[in-house]
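[Q] Does anyone have a clean C-alpha cell version of this?
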Amino acid sequence: MNSRSSVLARFSAIHLFLLCACTVSAQEAPPAALRFVNATGIEEPLLIVVNGDRLQSRGYSSGSATGRLHLPATPCRIELSHTELGRHNFTLDLQAGVEHIVVAHTVAETGNGVHPLKFRLEHQVLNPSPGESTGKSRLQLLQTTMQAHLELRLAGTPLRLARLRPETLELPSTNSEIGVYHGDLLLGRLPFSEPGHGTVILFTDTAGHLHHVFFLEPGTAEESSDRR
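[A] Here you go.
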C-alpha cells in the first residue's frame, strides 16, 4: 500500500511538473499580431483569406485596414484576391510577440509597347518595433505610389520618402495632432492622443489623387483620409 502510494505520489509530481512546464512554455510564447491594409487605390474590394478562412465576405475597400488579429506564431497561409488585379498567394512566418502589417498594393507590369500598362497585386510586410518608454512616439511611413520619391512635410519638417522603403521617425511627446502636407495640400492630421507607435500608408487612386491610412498602437484610434 505504501509502495502504491509512493508510485502515485511520483506520478502526480511528474504530472504537475509537466503541467507547469507547459504553462510556462505557453506564457513564454505570446501570439503574433497581424493586420492588413488595402492600399491598391482601386474601388473594387480586396478579399483576404487567412489559413483558408475569409476575413470578411464582402472584402475590404481601398483605404481600409483590418483590426489586429492575434494568431499563433506559426507559418500562415495568406491569399489576396482582387477582381482587377488578380490573385496573390504567399506564406508569412509569424513571429511570437511581433506585429506584422501586410500592405496590399499594386505594381506595374512591364509593357511591350502594344498592350496598355497593366497592374498586378503585390504585398509588403511592415514590422513596427515597439517604442521605448521614453515618453516619445514613433511614426512609420510607407508610400506605395508609382513615384520614385514622394515629398512631404511632417510637423513642419521636410521628408522625402522613397517608394516601398519604410521610414521611421521618432516624435517628441505630444498630445496633439500632427499635420502631414504634400506641397500646400494638407493630407490629414495624425491624432497622437498618447505616446505610441503610429503607421501611415500613402497611396494614390486611379485618378492620381493621394490618400493615406493611419493607425496608432497600442491605442485604437484609426483614420482613413481622402484628400484631393
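[Q] Thanks! Anything notable?
[A] The chain is about 10% helix and 50% strand.
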